[in-house]
């Protein structure tokens, strides 16, 4: 197994559907410009409430990717 060096960045994804969709949205957007994404870690979960109902989920994540 070769050694790897990783870099981490923090992102926040949002979704009106679910926490998982918010995470997937953030990762999909990062994938457009960041190569070699290897893992993610949920840092914070929060949401927007209107009229007593959850309207949007907001999830902050760190993603790690290998440097070339």
Give an overview in words:
This protein has one helix at 19-31; strands spanning 6-15, 37-50, 53-66. It is α+β, with helices and mostly antiparallel strands and 68 residues long. It has a three-stranded antiparallel beta sheet, covered by helices on one side. The radius of gyration is 14 Å and the shape is elongated. The mean pLDDT is 95. The chain contains one helix and three strands, in the order βαββ.
In helices, the fraction of residues equals 10-25%
User: Which word captures the global form?
Assistant: elongated
Tell me about the biggest sheet?
Answer: 3 strands, antiparallel
On the 0 to 100 scale, the average pLDDT is 95
Contiguous uncertain segments of 5+ residues? none
Round the Cα radius of gyration to an integer and report it. Answer: 14 Å
Output the helix-strand order: EHEE
Cα separation of the termini: 16 Å
Oligomeric state as shown: single chain
Broad structural category: alpha+beta
Summarize the structure.
The chain is an alpha+beta fold. It has one helix at residues 19-31; strands at residues 6-15, 37-50, 53-66.
């Amino acid at each position: 197994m070769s050694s790897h060096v990783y870099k981490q960045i923090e992102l926040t994804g949002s979704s009106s559907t679910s926490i998982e969709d918010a995470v997937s949205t953030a990762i999909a957007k990062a994938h457009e410009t960041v190569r070699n994404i290897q893992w993610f870690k949920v840092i914070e979960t929060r949401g927007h409430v209107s009229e007593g109902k959850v309207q949007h989920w907001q999830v902050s994540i760190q993603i790690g990717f290998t440097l070339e």
